Amino acid sequence: MTSITTNPEERALLQAAFRSFDEAAHTLQQSYSALTARVEEMDAELAQSNDALRRQLADNEAMRVRLDGILESLSTGVVVVDESGIITRSNRAAERLLGAGDVGLRSRSVPEVLERRGLTVSDRPQRIGQSVVSISQVPLRNASGGDSGHLVLFQDITQVYQLEEQLQRKDRLAAMGELIGRIAHEIRNPLGSVELFASLLQRDLEEHQPTQRYAQQISQAVQLMDGLLANLLLYMRPVHLTRAWHEAEPLLNDSIELAAHAITKVPVEIRVDISQEVPLIWCHDGQLKQVIVNLVVNAVQAMPNGGELAISLCREPLQTLGRSAVRLTVRDSGVGIDPAHRSRLFDPFFTTKDEGTGLGLAIVHSIVEAHHGRIDVESTVGQGTACSIILPHPSVTGDAGPTFSPGCEADDIGDAERTAREVVFMEDSSYD
């Protein structure tokens, strides 16, 4: 049987020990409750932090995707280069201009890539294929403002360059115009006298005399020179157009027939593709035939050993001319155009042909401008050339009969038609 202590002092000590134990247990219970509350509070804070982090990551990813989309949508080519000069990123515009994908550009140096295409970092215009670009370099800064590489920017200035060329061409032509017109008129007067006396001499000489042949040659030479002067005066004379709706297929077929004198000289395969969306063309038919004849003859002459001649007609996007338009393209598989000659194609008297006069394409340019259109030329040496005529194409509403352009009087109709007939049937040497 267990004995129970009856000593009062021992009992007091035992009671004090129990009280201390109860107090410690109570304190421990309070600490545990506080700790549990703190853990729950920290769990809530951690959940909030995780939610905020997830939202931030989602926002960052959305921003990254958006920035990637913006970078890829830029018409300016962008190449990102690190501190050591190695390419780390490029957008589609740069890849298109440089002819390589992102994988092909990564880990390569910018000078190596540019040298392969014959380019340098410079603000001066440089040609890449059919495009004209300026290449600049800007530093790339990190968040603290430190240097973290640089960007190489390829700015497509093709349209600006073309506009500058057009302005320069107009300035040159304006300076030449008055002088050419005066000289042509002054030369035609004595030529008429020469032609008259050569004809009289040819009539008075006996048929089989050698001198009669000389008189014939003089007369023929004068006629050729007179034709050249007629081209000059035609080019310098403002073009008055009477535009109307004309069926596309007959107009193109007539033009090909007018160019038969050149087409039959070489084996040429002709393809004509007319979009069903463009059954009609708003133009002066005689003048537009002259344009097509010139371009077709040029294309055939660029294929001395034969080849493929493709003529197509289709709708053009609204932004090209700022209004509804059509594109008429004459494409050949010939020798192509030297890039050094591109800026002078439509200058009068510029030709690379031994027997050319340099007026054919100048007259074409004048006619297209009179139609309020434009000419685009794409060419690769050894692969061929495509000349595209972009013409306004207003909506077909109401009467589709002849309509006079502003400033065109009724008396101009006959002059325009006579001019068209004269130009279409000019000698071959006028087509350049």
Explain what you see.
- This protein starts with 7 loop residues before the first helix and ends in an 8-residue tail after the last helix.
- Helix content is about 50%, strand content about 20%.
- The longest helix has about 70 residues, at about 10-75.
- The radius of gyration is 41 Å and the shape is rod-shaped.
- It has eleven helices and 13 strands.
- Helix 5 packs antiparallel against helix 6 and helix 7 (about 250-260) crosses helix 9.
- The model is unreliable at about 395-430 (pLDDT under 50).
- By secondary structure, it is of the alpha+beta class.
- It has helices at about 10-75, 90-100, 100-105, 110-115, 160-205, 210-235, 250-260, 260-265, 285-300, 360-370, 410-425, and strands at about 75-80, 85-90, 120-130, 130-140, 145-155, 240-245, 270-275, 280-285, 305-315, 325-330, 375-380, 385-390, 405.
- The strands form three sheets. The protein has a five-stranded antiparallel β-sheet. It has a five-stranded mixed β-sheet with strand order 7-9-10-12-11.
- The chain folds into four domains: about 25-75; about 75-155, 2-Layer Sandwich (Beta-Lactamase), CATH 3.30.450.20; about 160-235, Helix Hairpins, CATH 1.10.287; about 240-430, 2-Layer Sandwich (Heat Shock Protein 90), CATH 3.30.565.
Question: How far is the N terminus from the C terminus?
Answer: 137 Å
Structure classification: alpha+beta
Number of strands: 13
Looking at CATH, the homologous superfamily of the largest domain is: Histidine kinase-like ATPase, C-terminal domain
Number of helices: 11
Please, how many domains? Answer: 4
| Low-confidence blocks of residues | 397-432
CATH class of the largest domain: Alpha Beta
Mean pLDDT: 78
Q: What portion of the residues fall into strands of 2 or more residues? A: 15-25%
Radius of gyration: 41 Å
The CATH architecture designation of the largest domain is: 2-Layer Sandwich
The rough form would be described as rod-shaped
Order of helices and strands: HEEHHHEEEHHEHHEEHEEHEEEH
CATH topology of the largest domain: Heat Shock Protein 90
Query: Order of strands in the sheet with the most strands?
Result: 2-1-5-4-3
Estimated helix fraction: 40-55%
The biggest beta sheet is recorded as: 5 strands, antiparallel
